[in-house]
Amino acid sequence: MESLGNEKNHIIPYRTFLYVLAGLIALTLTSVTLTQISLGTLTVAMALLIAAIKSFFVLRIFMHLKFEKRMFSIGVTAVALLISAVIIITLLDYLYR
Amino acid sequence: MSAHAEIHRDDLASKTGMWLFLFTEMLLFGGLFVVYSVYRFRNPVAFHLAAGELSVFIGTLNTVILLTSSATIAMSVTAMQKQNKKLTLLLLGITVLLGIAFLVNKYFEWGGHIREHIYPGSSVLALRGQGDVLFYGLYYFMTGLHALHILIGLVFIGFITVFVVRNKVNPENFVLLENSGLYWHLVDLIWIFLFPLFYLIT
Amino acid sequence: MSPEKNTEEPSYLNYKGKYKGIFSWIFSTDHKRIGLLYLFSILSFFIIGATLGLLMKFELIAPGATIMDAQSYNAFFTLHGIIMIFAVVIPGLPAVFGNFLLPIMIGAKDVAFPKINLLSWYLYVTGVTLVLISQFAGQGPPDTGWTFYAPYSFRTTNTMLPAVFGAFVLGFSSILTGLNFLVTIHRMRAPGMTWLKMPLFPWSLYATGWIQLLATPIIGITLLMIVAERTLHIGFFDPTLGGDPILYQHLFWTYSHPAVYIMILPAMGAISEIISTFSHKTIFGYKFMVASILAIAFVGYFVWGHHMFTSGMSGTALYTFSLLTFLVAIPSAIKVFNWISTMHKGSIDLKTPFYWAMAFIFVFMIGGFSGLILGSLAANVHLHNTHFVVAHFHFIVFGGTGFAFFGAAHYWFPKITGRMYDTKWANIGLVLFFLGFITLYGPMFYLGFKGMPRRYFDYDEVFHAGNIISTMGSWILYSGLAIIIINLFSSLRGGKKAVSDPWGGKTLEWTIPSPPPVENFTETPVISKGPYDYK
Questions:
Q1: Which of B65, C86, C281, C335 has an alpha carbon within 20 to 30 A of C262's alpha carbon?
Q2: ipTM strictly over 0.90?
Q3: Do the chains contact at C254 and A86, CB–CB below 8 Å?
Q4: Helix axis angle, B11-42 to C161-187, nearest 10°
């Protein structure tokens, strides 16, 4: 069994990270601004949606998932779905009491 | 085991192990998100009002700090791949400083609340009502646990920095650097969700 | 315990490494030695837990206080539960047989992270030490039950923190073991061993690894919340502060139900190995077995509310959990059907491990059916918190995981020790154990059905007769257990030397010497056939 090192690794340019960072900060400021305007119940949904989009970019680019084997992305998605499922099922109790 | 173990290196195994560990961290905080969901559902108004008492400025500042530190540690991997040891160390150093800045902000933020006797178990908090008790309980517990993870992350990055200096982590063998980055990004991810849930539900 | 004559390499038992004496064991990163370290610890705690059980049963032989008062009884069943659940059955098969056999069965030299493997054991020892400390520190031993239900768990003045921390540390040990096995299976299978050529015991450890990884953190955080309640009055589960005690139950069971699949899946995996080998026949429906293992792990994540039917949950939650509970029984049933079908027209070799497997199927079915009864909402109202539940989980956990553990111990004894056990005493022990088991737990179904509550040190006279029978069963069981364990220990010295393949098994562990050399295989095996190639 030979060494399985990092030979074939893809190198992400510095610029890419800086662009993504700029986008993430922009999204952050957007969510702050939008929540100052009260949109009722939509406010939180929108803030969480933006959080989800930010997470997507952190996972995809910063954490390299775009260039890793697909099983990692599947794993992350599955875990996120699992946590959501547990929350939803627990809320089935509280929503209908 | 003999020296055979060193020769047979498997970076993919190492990375897989790190991702699996990240899954456990996601579920650890996940349990707290369950608690948050339930109590937010039961106390919407109190949560909304209590959130208004937190400083959006500090929260946003901390978010930007953490996002930037994620970018810097991600860039340190590129620097390593490009065999630029000095830049790698510089970026790691900036990451650590940003992490410390986050913790300093947190210290002052918490200090402010504690000075006003808003902390778990205080009678002042109890008098404000159950919704407030739960909001601040979750606030301290979740941001506290998160801050603990920042500290752990900083120690981890600290060790990796030393390894880089000593060339134990080098362009031929840097999976540990990547793994420390992954851990740090996770800490950032958790904050990406904590921020709106505590500061922006106004 | 001397090396096989044909190998140049010493066995893992005789290997002389960097350390000497006991240090060569407690500093070893060899998965085989770590497996035995776990065996030693787990067996010790099992004996402690079983003795606690014996004493509890003695208390229950008559109404009123027999040998202890109510508070002591509460402490007894708490410690019995904590030890048996967290220190015995959850680590049990994975930590002992998983550690020893998994790398060998997939053709690897060790697990993916041998040092983390050793750390897992250190964490185990730390965790159980903390649990034991809770018995003697401060204000009296924990008395909440192993379930640590709020609000009592944060209101009781008895010592709770060491036990809670102990459970937390044990959880961390479990997570690391699961993580290790997952990476091992993903990355270290021998060339040619595709996923669908992997035997069922490794498959079961794979699914179990996912549960260990993904469920345990939930109890980790929940225990931390209990600590926060006790020390900081944080209010998550305190009704006076706005918290909901039922939320504690949700969080607790979100882990503790999948935990029972951590207990049973490796057991089922071991049983599959035993049945195939002693039927000299390939497992019937291998792909369905794999699918069932994964299905049990997956669906098992969503049924936790069936522990909470009488707690005050909403109607919607009640029928959702009941429906899902019935669904999770289906893949288990498929497995039982496939085990029987494997035996059908096989060339059965009646040996001790096979007797254990048959006993397993018998008690597992009873435990499983009683679980369906408990999963029915209307019946549950009547049976919750009675001895019916106690019978159910002892049949399925002690019967299931316990019987499989003893079956696995006898099956793999030659491989691990290089000796054969004494068959006569093994079988006598088994028969006594089995008869004792049925006598001990069988009456509890009746007693519970008639209304005898659990976790009470006293009961109404009308339950007396059943309890006498049950307590006598505990004595028979305990004697059987003693014979089994003493027989295995004495066979370590006096048993006949074992060959590589005493049973005619087809999985990889039977191709290497008994006991194995340190690096398991002199040459990495190349796989071309399925795991149970008996044709």
A1: C281
A2: yes
A3: yes
A4: 140
